[in-house]
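Entry 14. Structure prediction run on the chain below.
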Amino acid sequence: MISTSKEQVIAERMRTLGIREEDIVEKFVRSRGHGGQNVNKTSTCVYLRHVPTGIEIKMQRDRSQYVNRILARSLLADKVEALVLGEESRVRQEIERIRRQKKRRSRRAKEKILRNKKCQSVKKGLRGMVHETDE
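Output returned:
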């Protein structure tokens, strides 16, 4: 179940992005997959279409229609935000943060490989040396 406070947060976010309930076409479809008889008897899958932007969302993550409605609206808000704000959207910032982390990680990995190569090179160099002793 989703708390009413989360529902209010999503509704407020939709208002700030200019998403009105009148602009949303909402349909309910039968879900597929896990859920037993509940899935076969009730239409728990939620289909949303935001008419001004043409964005379509289909949500069937949960067995409850109510939860799927909230999740679909949240996803719609994310997509509209990405469309409106572009580079400044939360989703875009998160993707960029992960990309920077991976870049740092790969640089560290390259340095480690080079250190290991250098160490191996030193070992191989020592193998060929023959020490002569004067007798």
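The radius of gyration is 28 Å.
Filed with the rest of this week's runs.
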